[in-house]
Amino acid sequence: MNATGLITEYNPFHNGHLYHLNQAKSIDPDAVIIVLMSGNWVQRGTPAIVDKWQRADIALRSGADLVFELPFYFAVQPGDIFAQGAIRLLNDLSINRLVFGSEHPNTDFIELAEQSVLLDGDESFTNKNATYASNFANALQKETGFKLDQANDILAFSYAKAIYQQKLMDKIEIKPIKRISSDYHQSYIDTDSKISSATAIRRALSEGKDVSNLTPMHDLEYTDYEKKYFDLLKYRLITDNIGQIRSVYQVNEGIDFY
């Protein structure tokens, strides 16, 4: 029996995710649909606005056969580590196909990943005011002609790179599908469409707007976690010394002086 894997956050589950699920099912109607979903904490390091049990329940009621949790360690990491952990786990679950959204679904992401290997750790990255990710994207474009600057393309590339590095090309087929209607980072809902980004839906909820036409989830509520936890973060920044701040995982050079 074949198994199709989806890597998700569902924060919250919306009509775009339902489209993704349906597209995955249409590729191979007889395949088991395995969803690997972030738990109560998501990639930006904030709590999900809906707990993992409700999100897993809506995924199962929308067509998924199994939902597994992506462990916290991987769920809150940058895209490359997020992808490495997700692909390793899905391989352990014996998927033979990965379906994901992409702005450029006709791109051969495996070939792109293979071409990018020589760029890792490239000492020619000279723009010290840019992040490593920006320098890498510029180098990749120079090498391959592909501009890696769209959110879903970046994740697609990360998945392909993880598959390539873990030598799973003969085990896991990748199937990009075209992201429709809204951009991943779109911050406002599209009133002319029934599909909006999770970012836009969360923002609309924070403004007290009705999002019932954008998601099959009911009675959604928004909690401003940034405001809720800011005083705690501020307390730690004021009371911790520089050495303690520097010891926090992924604190970049210079943050300790702000």
TrEMBL record:
Coiled-coil intervals, chain numbering: none
Top-level taxon of the source organism: Bacteria
Name of one Pfam family that matches: HIGH_NTase1
InterPro entries xrefs: Rossmann-like_a/b/a_fold, tRNA(Met)_cyd_acetate_ligase
Keywords: Ligase, tRNA processing
Name of the molecule in the record: Nucleotidyltransferase
Origin species: Oenococcus alcoholitolerans
